[in-house]
Amino acid sequence: MKVFRNYFYNAGYQVLAMILPLITSPYITRVLGKSGVGINSYTNSLIQYFVLFGSIGISLYGNREIAFVRDDREKMTATFWEIQILKTLTITVSYAVFLISLMFMHRYHTYMLIQSLYILAAGIDISWLYMGIEDFKKTVLRNTFVKVFSIILIFTFVKTPNDTGIYILILGGSTLLGNATLWPYLRKTLTSVKWSKLNIFQHFYPALSLFIPQIAIQVYLVLNKSMLGIMIGADYSGFYEKADNIVKLVLSLATATGTVMLPHVANAFHRGERERVNRYLYDSFDFVSCLVVPLTFGLAAIALNFAPWFYGKQFTPVGSAMILEAAVITFIGWSNVVGQQYLLPTNQIKSYSSSVILGAVVNIICNVPFIYFWGLSGAVAATVLSELAVTIYQLWKIRKQVELKRLAVNVPKYLLAGLIMFIAVFKISTMIRFNFMSLILEVTLGILLYLGLLLLLKPTILDRVKQLLRDRRSGG
Prior knowledge:
The protein is mainly α. It has 19 helices and no strands. The chain has one domain (2-409).
């Protein structure tokens, strides 16, 4: 039951981390307008490149390495400090490069300086340690407090379009503070260390091997916003970000399993329990499929009317973007299971890297012509095609290691139930005026309809749920 407890901790935090900013979004979009929102989105997309190059893939690498050695406290302590010192050095270099680059930027200097708090926050982020030892409670509770505090600050100090810098400062500062609050727990987690025996640079090349896919991932996470800002205007960068925020909020319910399962699978693989690793993959893929399909169809069904109601009429283009981007919920959900829950913990770094590099290449090839001809919709379409390419490649790479038919045994049933749910909810959404009560009605109807259809279609996950409930009642 530890895996499920950690899943709900992490899923709860991921949702909270997305929901709390969304609580402020209707307020922020109306106070700062599309210009202020666009400036934040565009400048943040630029700063994320420096965060990426400073982190050099250490979050994923550190999570996995800690999972390998967590049974030996002394070895875990040495591993932590070696990786963290290396990260501090690379972040320092990255920040220096940022300051040099700032001299060649022609606009948004002040905003970029404030955004650089994210680089510093990345330098002190040690959440990968607690993920590696499967201790999610600490990160959830402490960061929850910090994020709630940031919301109070936003409503207190952000009052006019001229407060865009204050808004960025609160977001970046809360991230920095949230990461800092994890450090006091080190005293109880680690033991003493012999500094002279640390071998810091032994981790450089292995971390670098995970840095390459991180670059590729960042390309199709951030490049779209950057290209929209350059080719069309910062406003459209903001539109893309707002659509992406909602999609990623919904997606976080599914991708939370990746953070939880990576150390779990890595530890099983380290012990040579290959059958157990494959069983984790089958169960996780089925569980995630059961979640992502209704999330995809459900979001698409309400998106058109939800966006202008939630963000304001200035953000009407966000609705159609959300309909298109909803598909990535399914694709990323699947690739998260195969990539982060199977390829990475079983040390198949080359296959994982190749998949995300392929996604980046597809995104780069599609981005400029798609944005040129179709603007915001083109950027979203490039994202969807990129994620589809990643998923297909990863499934193809594991076709000889697992039974793909067993992996996707229930997917057709989920798709059928999701499609019927979409038709019903979308029809209702176009017939009634959209407000908070209609949103609750549509979401409730979608959930009940999907669950009812599952009971009729009888996917095997229902038997798994029944077994887990029996085990829980019997104390197993």
